[in-house]
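Supplementary notes for students who missed Thursday's class. We covered one full example, reproduced here. Read the sequence, then the structure, then the short commentary at the end.
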Amino acid sequence: MKEYSNGEVTITWEPEKCIHSGACVKGLGEVFQPKEKPWIKIDAASSGQMIDQVKKCPSAALGYYMTDKGKEVESSSEEQIVEVVANGPLMVYGNIAVKFKDGHTERKSKVSAFCRCGSSQNKPFCDGAHKKIGFEG
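Structure (token representation):
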């Protein structure tokens, strides 16, 4: 996980979760600039603007925590909501526990994207492969 802090809020990025929807760039392009290094310009917007945009990340690759609250990634929902994205992943919003076939459990918060196309290299999670194969469903 990579972290970018302005002293008030820390934006976290887990690149292996990113499905490259572009929601971050489309919503706050002055902060999220994927062709630059570092790609998150933490001082280009207010903390509130960045938090609002991070909450819109469909894969939960982006998260945040407030500096004075410790390293807890904020959850956007206590309730679980499932959304089938046209030609894309199954999105689960809220706090969940994912139990894997080997028996271990991983806790997820905010948003989780699950593969529906069968081509993800990060199953059961989506890695954006549906775009490459032209998945429809």
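Commentary. The beta strands are 2-5, 9-13, 62-66, 81-84, 90-93, 96-99, 105-108, 111-114. Helices lie at 23-27, 47-54, 129-133. If anything here is unclear, bring it to office hours.
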